[in-house]
Sequence to fold (386 residues):
Amino acid sequence: MVSLFNVPTVIIVGGGASNEVGAQAKRLKSKHVLLVTDTFMVSCGLAGKISDAIKKEGIKVTVFDGVQPDPTDKNVLQGLDVCKKNGCDLIVGLGGGSPMDCAKIISVLTANEPPLSNYAGLNKVPNKGVPTIMISTTAGTGAEVTKAAVISDTERDVKMLIMDVNNTADVALVDYELTMSCPGSLTANVGVDTLVHAVEGYVSKKANAMTDPLALSAIKLVSKYLLKAFKEPSNAEAREGMMMASLQAGMAFANSSVCLVHGMSRPIGALYHVPHGLSNAVLFPAVTEFSIPGATARYATVARTMGYAKESDVDADACKKLVDGLKKLNVDLKIPRLGDVVKVDRAAFDTKVEKMANDGLASGSPNNNPIVPTAQQIIELYHKAW
Ligand SMILES: NC(=O)c1ccc[n+]([C@@H]2O[C@H](COP(=O)([O-])OP(=O)(O)OC[C@H]3O[C@@H](n4cnc5c(N)ncnc54)[C@H](O)[C@@H]3O)[C@@H](O)[C@H]2O)c1
Ligand SMILES: [Fe+2]
Fold:
């Protein structure tokens, strides 16, 4: 099998890495940066700090802070307008996955005519836009290193997945110190997102020799540090470990694909505005149990890597321990059930579940799952997670 591996040309990792933003903007010969972020990043002062670091190099900065969590096509078009009006030649994305995805897609639209829906799917972006630098403040989506972005289509109520090498940042600045302020629920949600990226990246039909070591290393780091970061928010070692896990998982899944958890999770986000990591977390144990027969040896390796199973356990026992371990992890991270997070009653949910199953399948991610489900099996899995 031939496999393709895309990551940013420059990845700078470690405490203080975000201070490199000015030097990197200068290296990319920018005269005017568009800083794409959200209102929290402005109010906590981080956007100002990053702007100052860029301005120090004699480069102008315009801030666009109109990104909402789970960004929409409208956020992207507003940002694009600001970019064009100010003649910006470089885009810096600052924040969690939402500002970074929005920043990456504003760049895409500087060189590809709207509508954005033309570019949804795999390898559909013909031209590379203005260069981008991504600075992540959560650990994390891995969006700083992936060629993916998820943008909500407000007309059709679906989350569009845009996957293309022309959607990869030029520079990723991976600075765990920026994650120290994440509250517990955010740490838990994005941390499980990282774990799902790593596990799905490892069991995907497109997993390969380039992605496997990154995925397994990320799984190990999450096992060691996620609960610690959740319980001890100021534990720098745990934050650094989770940031590395997020980075490695991002490099893995973007080059081997996410699978059924993500396929089923996006429709929940699109319809009920549940945070992405949380909608992954509520589905993860049930989808893992369903998928195990398609990749038993790989899931057993995941169980052993996480420390849920012993080396001496046979694969079937290890897989059972994995499902039990993931259920307990959700409890330990105070992650509720699907029924609690969508905040509608079961009858109302059931009127939407068929659309959700079909949208999930249409995204393409379930095709890479160890077992490719039917729409009916997806509906049953939503019910199981309820
Ligand atoms: N492009 C990719 O490869 C990829 C992968 C996974 C998920 N995603 C997308 O990323 C988005 C989710 O991103 P996310 O989970 O990082 O959250 P987010 O960017 O939506 O942020 C959630 C909230 O956390 C706040 N926040 C961010 N950093 C903080 C910090 N350091 N301290 C305190 N608060 C902070 C934000 O201001 C916001 O209010 C979804 O839209 C999802 O679809 C993209
Ligand atoms: Fe994700």
